[in-house]
Amino acid sequence: MNLMLTGLNKISQDFLGRSTAATRRILVCAGTGCLVNGSLKVYEGFVQALKNSGINAIVELKKEEEGVFVSRTGCQGFCQIGPLVTILPEGIFYTKVKPADVAEIVETTVKKGDVVERLLYVEPDTQRVCRTKDEIPFYQKQHRFVLSNCGAIDPEDVNEYIASGGYKQAMKAYLEMNPEEICELIFASGLRGRGGGGFPTGRKWDVARRETNVKKYVICNGDEGDPGAFMDMGIMEGNPHSVIEGMTIAARAIEADEGFIYVRAEYPLAVKRLRKAIDDAYRVGLLGKNLFGSEYSFNLTIMEGAGAFVCGEETALIASIEGKRGMPSPKPPFPSISGLWGKPTIINNVETLSQVPLILAIGADGYRKRGTKDSPGTKTFALTGHVANSGLIEMPFGATLREIIYGVAGGMTSDTGKAVSDGFKAVQIGGPSGGCLTRDHLDLPIDFDSLKTVGAMVGSGGLVVMNKNTCMVSVARFFMQFTQHESCGKCVLCREGTKQMLALLDDIIEGRATMETLDLLEDLAAAVQKGSLCGLGKTAPNPVLSTMKHFRDEYLAHVRDKRCPTGKCKALVRLTIDEDLCKGCTLCAVKCPVGAITGEKGKPHHIDDKVCRKCYICVEACKFKAIKGD
Amino acid sequence: METIRKFERVCEIIDHNQRNAARLIPILQAVQAEYRYLPEEILTFVATSLGISPARVFGVATFYSLFTLKPKGKYLIRVCNGTACHVKGSMGLYGAIVKKLGLREGEDSTPDMLFTVETVNCLGACGLSPAMVVNDEVYGQLTPQRVSDIVDEIVLKEAQNESDAHGA
Question: How many CB pairs under 8 A join A and B?
Answer without folding.
Answer: 132
